[in-house]
Amino acid sequence: MKAGGGTRNDAVRCTVQEYSLFALLVSCLALAGNADGQQATLVAHEWGTFTSIAGNTGTAVQWYPWAVPSDLPTFVEHFQSSNFKPLLSGTIRMETPVLYFYSPQETRVSVHVSFSKGLITEWYPHVTRFAPSGNAQNIAFNQKEPEGSVTWESIALRPGDASSLLLEKEGSRYYAARATGSTPLFVSSPGGQQREKFLFYRGVSSENSPLTARAVTNGSVHVENVSGEPVARLFLFERLGKAVGFRSVASLGETATLEMPELNDSVAEVSEAILSALMEQGLYPDEARAMLETWKDSWFEEGARLLYVVPKGFVDRILPLSISPAPREITRVFVGRLELLSTKTRTAIESALAKGDEATLAKYSRFLEPILRILFEEEPDPVKAELIRHRLERPYTPVVAQAQIP
User: Fold this and answer.
1) Which of 69, 96, 204, 355 is deepest in the core (most CB within 10 A)?
2) Confidence at residue 397, expressed as pLDDT on a 0 to 100 scale
3) What is the CB-side half-sphere exposure of residue 93 using CA atoms within 13 A?
4) b/e string for 25-55 if b means 16 or more Cβ within 10 A?
C-alpha cells in the first residue's frame, strides 16, 4: 500500500463514523426539541369557519340553525345527542374546523380545545373526554356563559398508512376535507380503532363577532372591526338568483364603508380570490382547496355576506388550542361569515313574502328565520309585520314555544 493510500475497509469505517455522527446530531436535535416540549418534525394546520348574522344595529344576533337537516355523516359523534344542537341558540356557529397533522415518523400527540361562552357539539374521531359532562339545557348561552371543551389523548400518527376511511352512501360536505396529504391518525374508541385524516369538531357560542356590519341609507355597508387586530382580507359578496357580485378588500383596519358590488361577476372569480387568500394565510394549496370545496355551495348561496380572514388573536382567544408535544409549526386559518340584510336582499325577501313565493324564500335556507326576525323588529307597517309573523310561525312550529317573538 502506498503512503497516503487507504483500503476499502478504511473507507467503510469512515462512512460509518460519519453516519454515526449524523445520527447523533439528529438525536440531539430531537432531544433538544423534546426538552422544550416540542416535536421538531411535527406540523399542525387547521382551518374552520365562524358564522354569524348581523342584526339591525350591526352586531351579531342570537339564532337557531334548525331549518335544515344535519350535513354530517352518521358516524360523527354528538354532545348528548344529535337532537341537541338544532334548538341551540348562539351568535357564532363554529363550523367544520379540521386539524391536520404532518409527521415524517410515527408519533403520538394529545390535543385539547375549548370554546369560550359555548359548547363543542360534534366531533370525530372519538374524544377522550368532553366538558361539560353533565346535562346541558337548550338555552341561549348568554344566560349562563359556559365553556365547552374536548380532549383527544394519545392520537397515533402513522405516515403512509393506507387503511380505509369510513364512507357512507349519502353525500356530505365532510368528506371534501380529506383531499390533502396530511398524516393519517388513529384514535381508540369503545367500538374499536377509528382512522381519519384530521380531527373534526363543531360548536356554538354566544361570543361577539369580531366584525359588525349594517346597511346604510345609500345602499352601502358600514363595517366595524372590533377585534383590535387588522383583518388581512375581506370579501363583500351578494347573490340574487344567478347574478353574482363581490368586492375584495386587501386589509381592514377599524372601520370601512363599502359599496355593494355590481352583480356582474362569477362564482369562479370569487372562488379563485378566496383560494389565494387562504394560501396567503399559510394553508397548503390542497388544504385551501379542501376548505373551498367544503363550503363553496354555502358561501356562494343566495343573499349577501362578508367573508373575511378572522384575526389570529381572536381565534386563539375564543378557541384556545393546545397540542402536546408542541409542533414546530401551528397554522390556524379561520374564515368569518357575517350574513347581511342588504337593500337588494331585503327587497327580494319582502317581494317573495308578498307574493307567497316559497321557492325564492327557500334559497335563504337556515338564514331565513333570523332574517325574518330582523325584518320584523323594524317593520312599522302592521299589515306587513303580521305577514312576517305568519311566515315565521308556519314552518317553524316546533320552536315557536321556545323562541317566541315578543
Assistant:
1) 204
2) 41
3) 22
4) eeeeeeeebeeeebbebbbbbbbbbbbbbbb
The three-state DSSP-derived secondary structure of 377-402 is HHCCCHHHHHHHHHHHHCCCHHHHCC
Q: Which residues of 71-108 are buried (b: 16+ CB within 10 A; e: fewer)?
A: ebeeebbbbeeeebbbbbbbbbbbbbbbbbbbbeeebe
Look up residue 237 and give its amino acid. Answer: F
Render the burial of 294-323: b for 16+ CB within 10 Å, e for the rest: bbbebbbebbbbbbbbbbbebbeebbebeb
Calculate what percentage of the chain has a pLDDT beyond 90: 74
Mean pLDDT lowest among 12-21, 171-180, 253-262, 310-319: 12-21
Q: For 182-223, how does the pLDDT look when each residue is reduced to its tens digit (9 = 90+)?
A: 999 999 999 999 999 999 999 999 999 999 999 887 889 999
Measure the CA–CA gap between 291 and 176, rounded to whole angstroms: 8
Strands 326-340 and 38-53: parallel
Q: Three cell numbers at 322?
A: 393546545
Pairing, β 118-124 against β 185-189: unpaired
**And the C-alpha cell for 51?**
358564522
Closest Cα partner for 282 from 100, 113, 159, 108? 100
Per-residue pLDDT at 124: 98
- Report the Cα 312 to chain-centroid distance in Å: 13
Helix axes 382-393, 343-355, angle to 10 degrees: 80
CA–CA dist 185, 290 (Å, integer): 18
Kindly list the domain boundaries of the chain, sorted by start residue.
40-209+254-340, 343-400
Confidence of residue 71 (pLDDT cuts 50, 70, 90): confident
Query: What are the residues whose beta carbons fall under 8 Å from the beta carbon of 175, sequence distance 6 or more?
Result: 73, 167
When the pLDDT of each residue in the chain is averaged and rounded to a whole number, the result is 86
Q: Is the backbone peptide bond immediately before 159 cis, with ω within 30 degrees of 0?
A: no
Q: Is the peptide bond before 325 cis (omega within 30 degrees of 0)?
A: yes
pLDDT in tens, 4-15: 444 434 433 333
* CA nearest to 304, candidates 272, 274, 275, 343: 343
Q: Please provide the DSSP assignment of 294-337 as one string.
A: HHHHHHTSSEEEEEEEPPHHHHHHHS-EEEESEEEEEEEEEEEE
